[in-house]
Amino acid sequence: MPLAVQDVMGVSAAAAGSLQLPRTILTMVLPTIAGVWIGKKAANNWKAMAIATGLAALPFIPLGFTTASTPFIVYLICIGITGIAESFRSVSVTPVAQSVLPQKDLGVGTALVTFVNSLSTLFAAAINGVVYGMSANNVQAGVNNIFRVTVIISMAGFFLVIFVVRKQLSGNEKAK
């Protein structure tokens, strides 16, 4: 992303490199707070996942329309918001999986969740490569298209959490 920001918006390498700073700070501090909130009530698990997927989509909406005149602060804020989303994701996915798995499958299930989380970056890179490749001669269009696809995928995840995960977790709570 820093190279795309440099190419499209014409900012310096130092400024483009600083884009991840707010996200990094948030992902160092916020998971503890989010984890405490999730730990207080089991119903907060699906809410945390909804926050994670919804907040992953929101910042990419304005980023999907990046031009040379897009203010740098918009990128800084939007990338910071993804740090909030990542914080909620990092503390909710494994506990949710563990809450729906039978006791005998906890080890394998937890390992599978960890594996899929790490594999997701490879899928994202492959999808982004294809999307960007469709606009290879136009950096701005390629980057904007990647951001728009991110919104679509994140919103699909949000609806999956709202309509499937929430019901699954509610069913487990009633069974206990």
Question: Would you write up a description of this structure?
Answer:
- With 176 residues, the protein is an all-alpha fold.
- 83% of the residues lie in helices and 0% in strands.
- The protein is built from eight helices and no strands.
- The model has no long low-confidence stretch (mean pLDDT 90).
Features:
176 residues, mainly alpha
Summarize the structure.
The chain has 176 residues and is mainly alpha-helical.
Secondary structure layout:
Layout: H1 2-9, H2 13-17, H3 20-40, H4 44-57, H5 60-63, H6 72-100, H7 106-133, H8 139-175
Helix pairs in contact: 3-6, 4-6, 4-8, 6-7, 7-8
Largest sheet: none
How many β strands by DSSP? 0
How do the helices and strands follow one another from N- to C-terminus?
HHHHHHHH
Give the termini distance in whole angstroms: 46 Å
Number of helices: 8
What would you call the shape?
elongated
Low-confidence stretches: none
Mean pLDDT: 90
Multimerization status: single chain
Strand content: under 5%
Please bin the fraction of helical residues. over 70%
* Whole-angstrom Rg: 18 Å
Structural class: mainly alpha
